[in-house]
Amino acid sequence: MRLALPVRGAVLELEVTVCRVADLLPHEEVVADYLERLKRALSASAYQHNPVVVDAQSNVILDGTHRWAAMRDLGFEWIAACKVDYSNPLVELDSWARAYPPADGPARRLLERLGASPLGTPSVSESSLAVVGAGWGYEIAYSDLADAFRRLRELERELQLLTGRAPTYVPRSSWERYARGALLLLPPKPSKAEVVRAAREGRLLPPKSTRHVIPARPVRVNVPLKLLRSRHLDPALVDELLKQKRMFLLEPPVVLDREYQELLLLFA
Amino acid sequence: MAAELIIGFRLSRQLESAEALAPALVKARGLLERIGALVDGWEYDRFENLLLVRLRAGREVAKEAEKLIAGALGGELGLGSEPAPPAPSGFAVATEALPSPSVLGLLLRASAAQLEVPGLSRAEALALLAYYACGLDEVKALFAAAVLGEEPARLREALARLREKGVVGSDGSLTREGEELLERLADALRARRPTESRGQPAMVVDEEGNLEPFSPDKLAYSLYSCGVPYGLVSTIARQVEEVVGGRRYVGKRVLAMVTRSLLDEAYPAEGIAERFYSYVYALESVYVSVGGEVRRVTWGLLRRVSSEVLGERGLRPPRRLVRRHAEVIASELRSLVAHAYRYFEGRALKLEELRDLGRRTAPLVSFAWLDLSSTPREELAERYREAARGYLSAAAGSRDLGYRKEFVGRALLLLSAGLMLKYSLLPSNSTPLNLSALRAELGRARLPGDARAALARFCKLGAKLARKPLLIGPREARRVERQIAELRSLAERL
């Protein structure tokens, strides 16, 4: 089902459909605990509620890697998906900063021991791998994206040990809002081309490496799972199924199963 | 665009399904109506244990509505709940993106008719009609395009061309030229006459993804049942068939929308279009109070009621008979709801009322059920056997192919019914159904060897004879004579 949604004075076109599970490419790794929880929930459910978001061109999953992995592991042949044009500037790419409780002294000592270079907070760029606190910051050098994420993983481990807490995640693009009251680990923000390349080459980025901001998304499409198991499902049938539903537009911010900062198209 | 409020609740315990919430929400519906709030629907997310309720209500009553629903959840289900506000204001405003079912139906017809008027291409004609019918709301027209199976981008381009041509003015309203074109389009759509249907029937997809071939007869039956005048039924059914003719799949709701829009135009009196829609979705809007609990009418519940009612004569009703009876009850219920739909909104029937409906309709599937109310089983079985023997004898003596077939048909029904009574099964009004139940009994009952062989032979022969067409050649006619003779001998032995 092809849809056109009004977004900030422009129109975003997207397609709600089904894709073969085997045709989609993840670009991030999954968190094992969360994956298991989702698999249990799916096993007890009759529907796939929300479609995964996929680049129409490359079949790379932009949002919903865990749902996809759960359905793959449970043997589903098909998955409900919302296809978008990734090259459309309305589809934005950000990443997630890791926020820990403040631990300025120990953190700075750790970073110096790891050979990081001090930086002025205003000089944090989108490609920086950095740790910042209130009024201070360190940049960690890396050779390429794979190296950056390898170092990111090490830093995550070290900072969790140091602060005794698992991180919470905040949008990297607005990290300055959080830096005063937290110790932030900022991963470099990959480009869209790097995301597609990582997926195609199977070199998956760590979980929460990217944050895709889709300006409008369909939710609660409720495609029956019994259909998604079928080997010979005709996507035209799902199209007809979706046409029977009512659709509502919800302006952000909306909190349903999670907080959405984008326009929602609620199927009912 | 029409707006609704969504309010959310986090429930204190996980429920099996959204159905479990029906008692509380039916109760809440009555209370909410008193403050001018209408429950339009609800969604339960089992994973998040989150209940979202959609209300047609003013914003000022949202807080009170939330309290009433929470109270009903606690009172009816003993279920604690915490408000889970979907937005900082406590409720989210949901704007309906699609036009009404009648407008969608009209547009579906226009799209299938491929209308053109001088000065407009087909795409422009559809865009103009969609834009106008959606209340000059471009966003809604773009959403409608998705249901029509049209590319939203093409509709947008067509609308842009209509602006360039001066059909749509700079303020978004229709120009005089636009209004004239629209009049011509409406006339062209009304003037459409149904043509022959094309090829394979479309497959109808219900909300769960189940499929069945589109049947104009079934649609005609639904139209009759909800009171559409006879003269209109076949015209509407043919027009619907024409609209869906070229498609591989058609949604049940799409079908209902097209029909509704045709009825709206052809017979605007007495709300017949709305009545038809209620007929189709009757089972979704009727609730039944079972032991103090309010439940939605499901096929499971209908089969349970059917099984209880048919079982009242102390005989086992075969599963297929129960299914058939449940369908008849559903059809009666649909008819009832369609004729009094405004009274049925949010109302719960008593279980006994549903059973009464079952009793009233039981003879439609099993006349024996009625006979058994005044005649003991053994006596009735003997009566059926006697009558069957008489018909077999008449069939053997008949040269007229039509009478012979009719007598054999009657004899088979009565013989199979008599045998079913013998084995404590409730007979149906259908010979194939009775024969299939007897075949199943062969696998279950402990019968002496010769009785088993005779019953098996009867089932096989009965099925063969029941399938015989009226016109048969002489050789086949001689075979039938032999089979009738064998049936008469079996009737003595069974």
Description of the structure:
The complex is a heterodimer of chains A (268) and B (494). With 268 residues, chain A is α+β, with helices and mostly antiparallel strands. Chain A has a six-stranded antiparallel sheet with strand order 9-11-10-13-8-12, with helices on one face. Chain A contains seven helices and 20 strands. In chain A, α1 (32-43) crosses α2. Chain A has helices at residues 32-43, 65-73, 104-113, 145-163, 192-201, 225-229, 235-243, and strands at 2-7, 10-20, 47-48, 52-55, 61-63, 78-84, 92-94, 96-100, 117-118, 130-133, 136-139, 168-171, 183-186, 211-213, 216-219, 223-224, 247-250, 254-255, 259-260, 263-267. Chain A is 28% helix and 30% strand. Chain A has two domains: 2-92 and 195-267, Conserved hypothetical protein from pyrococcus furiosus pfu- 392566-001, ParB domain (Alpha-Beta Complex), CATH 3.90.1530.10; 96-189. Chain B has five domains: 3-95, Ribosomal protein S10 (Alpha-Beta Plaits); 101-190, no CATH class; 203-280; 284-365, no CATH class; 377-493, Four Helix Bundle (Hemerythrin (Met), subunit A), CATH 1.20.120. Chain B has 494 residues and is α+β, with helices and mostly antiparallel strands. Helices cover 60% and strands 11% of the residues of chain B. Chain B contains 22 helices and eleven strands. In chain B, the strands form three sheets. In chain B, strands 1, 2, 3, 4 and 5 form a five-stranded antiparallel sheet that branches. In chain B, strands 7-6-8 form a three-stranded mixed sheet. In chain B, 40% of the residues are buried. In chain B, a hairpin with a 2-residue loop joins β9 (287-290) and β10. Chain B has helices at residues 22-33, 62-77, 101-113, 122-133, 138-148, 152-164, 176-190, 216-225, 230-244, 252-266, 272-280, 282-285, 299-310, 319-339, 341-344, 351-365, 367-371, 377-396, 401-422, 431-444, 449-467, 474-493; strands at residues 3-11, 38-45, 50-56, 81-83, 92-96, 203-205, 211-213, 249-251, 287-290, 293-296, 348-350.
